[in-house]
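Supplementary Methods, section 5.1.

A reviewer requested that the exact input to the structure prediction be made available. We therefore reproduce it here, unchanged from the version used in the analyses.
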Amino acid sequence: MPPAASTPAAPTYKVDEKVLCFHGPMLYEAKVLDVKPGADKKDPPEYKVHYKGWKNTWDEYVPQDRLRKMTAENLDIQRNLKEQARPSQGTKGTKGTPDGKKATQSGKAGSEDFTAAPPTARGQKRTREMEMEKEDDFLRKHEIKLPIPDTLKAQLVDDWEYITKNQQLVPLPRNPNVVQILQHYREATPKKREGSAESDIFDEVIAGLKLYFDRSLGNILLYRFERQQLLDIRKEYPDKEASEIYGVEHLLRLFVSMPELLAHTNMDQQSVNKLREHLDDFVKFLSKNHETYFLTSYESASNKYIEQSKGV
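The structure derived from this sequence is encoded token-by-token as follows.
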């Protein structure tokens, strides 16, 4: 007898079910819109989700491992993630969020605080809606969509778990560091004609990524648990910039925030489109070489470090 045909994996989540979904290192409330079978019959299905409070343009199909049931335990994880992200953001910087909203100056990692009670006064609600509409209009002018491949999204989730759940750290200094990775990308990219506009733009993008990283690291790219490490490493390497010490793990976090950071520049649409092409190409480069660049494990923090980090 021929072997019995394998049956598709049963979906864990149903259409219209409210869930929590990872986007980058954060968990957001979402709703399942559709379910489709995995690429292979044995693979789990994929789910199309709509993130609560976000525009429909952010609806996407996600693998099952990015979803979590709407349980009290998972809501606690969501709150803990927000708490971990909040202290690492100062009033001078903003944290980009995939919903295209600007983080508040209190350092919240998203535009909607799910842990706070909703406003009860109708006037308060309308005022907030008007503010969000103005923000949407502003961001829409230079909106940059920067897709993150699933391999890198999974890396972001692992990154969060190592640091916030396991109390582990990226060993520093990293090799290769950000400067070296940017140089690798330059060498892997087909050479542009010397002195041409394409060559000049490419050089500006590389230099701009380094500059954004150096200026953003301390404000928006660190979890609270990592801030003590930044203080320690600066004492050890006072003359080095962040891009000479940190590596791809923190560089990837920059790309999650990049659409928000760039939305507040005064570039014209043609420049925005050209920049998006370069950024998208660099993300693909990271995805293609993720096994070469990303760590498979982090180092455990000492008890002394854990105690010190609580006061930072």
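The chain is about 45% helix and 10% strand. These observations are discussed further in the main text.
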